[in-house]
Amino acid sequence: MPTYVNPEKCDGCKGGEKTACMYICPNDLMILDEKEMKAYNQEPDQCWECYSCIKICPQGAITARPYADFAPLGGTSIPLRSAEDIMWTIQFRNGEVKRFKFPIRTTPEGSIKPYEGKPEAGDLENNLYFNETEVKVPKEVLNKKYEVQEADLTKTWKIG
Fold first, then answer.
1. Fewer Cβ close by (within 10 Å): the C or N end of the chain?
2. What whole-number distance in Å separates Cα of residue 60 and Cα of residue 32?
């Protein structure tokens, strides 16, 4: 089920040029209605249901039917995001409510150094791949020519 923006809750991220859901949507489906100043999903059938817009919405205005693997058909899931974690509230059809809390990050922000020890970008003369520290040299000759003898040739099918 694609995402749905509740127009009563959406404030268009307070009149900014780009809403949070527009910024985060990997398929560029969320747009802002300039007249109403409310966001909406312009092509619901193209929604990947990645929940990115639902998690980032500061007003909690975006919803989607949850996947059946964690909420049965007819249930609802509402994420509430804080600075450190996301609290998922799952409401089942019978009215039962369950809450799950998951951390947003497992490492401190800025602590990962993905390019440390890697070659500098832009050196076109360097033959190293990004994840290599030295050029690999073959241990034996490549493209060695082999002589095929008449006895090496065999038929693999029968004509008949």
1. C
2. 16
88 is catalytic: no
Half-sphere exposure of 113 (CA within 13 A, CB side): 3
Q: How far apart are CA 109 and CA 115, in angstroms?
A: 16
The pTM for the full model equals 0.54
Amino acid found at 117: G
CB 22 within 8 A of CB 57: no
E strand spans, the chain = 4-5, 30-33, 38-41, 62-63, 76-81, 85-91, 97-103
pLDDT digits (tens, 9 = 90+) for 4-17: 899 999 999 987 78
Q: What is the DSSP letter of 66?
A: P
Cα distance between residue 155 and residue 3, in whole Å: 61
Q: Which two tokens stand for residue 119?
A: 């070659």
* Catalytic residue from among 1, 6, 7, 48: 48
Give the pair of three-digit tokens for residue 9: 């809750």
> Mapped to the 3 state alphabet, what secondary structure does 76-95 carry?
EEEEEECCCEEEEEEECCCC
Taking 70 as the threshold, does the pLDDT of residue 155 lie above it?
A: no
**Phi and psi for 150 in degrees, rounded to 5?**
-60, -35
